[in-house]
Design goal:
Structural class: mainly alpha
Number of domains: 2
Number of helices: 6
Order of helices and strands: HHHHHH
């Protein structure tokens, strides 16, 4: 075998090694993405649970939140603002979860999230909140919320400045 033959053989072996390395790296990236996605899902579920538990621990805030959903007209403007901050917090959490899933070309497909959000926005206070505050959120998340099968229990009075 000549030196040129050895050189050609070396190039072939080097090319195979490069292809094998690329395949290995692609597999590692896929595994890392899967782990990141699972961790994101787990973190989102934990944060969601923490949110609802914190609301359950603070009875006054829970009661305010429920009153805002059911009868916002009975609340003072400052109470509406406080209740809106609760919903801002929750929906920011949901928006982050939605955007995380979108990165993996998935939708916020877990039925429980959709059910919770649909129930919030089917109330007079939830519908009124969304009409006033949806501009605070990313367009894709707004489109998602607007696409939910929400059947309002009571149509909000959008002329009321307190909703």
């Amino acid at each position: 075998m000549t030196l040129q033959d050895w050189g050609a053989l070396g190039e072939i072996i080097g090319g195979i090694a490069v292809i094998a390395t690329l395949i290995y790296l692609a597999q590692q990236i896929r595994n890392t993405n899967t782990a990141t996605h699972r961790r994101g899902y787990s973190d989102g579920a934990r944060e969601n649970s923490d949110f609802w538990m914190s609301l359950a621990r603070d009875f006054d805030l829970y009661e305010l939140y429920i009153r805002m959903l059911r009868a916002p007209e009975d609340l003072s403007p400052s109470d509406i603002d406080r209740a809106y901050l609760v919903l801002d917090s929750y929906l920011s959490l949901m928006e982050g979860y939605f955007l995380h899933n979108r990165q993996y070309r998935e939708h916020l497909s877990q039925e429980r999230w959709s059910r919770i959000l649909s129930q919030i926005f089917s109330t007079r206070g939830g519908a009124g909140y969304w009409l006033k505050r949806k501009s605070f959120f990313q367009n894709e998340f707004v489109d998602y919320i607007d696409s939910l099968d929400v059947k309002p229990r009571v149509r909000p009075d959008v002329s009321d400045p307190r909703i």
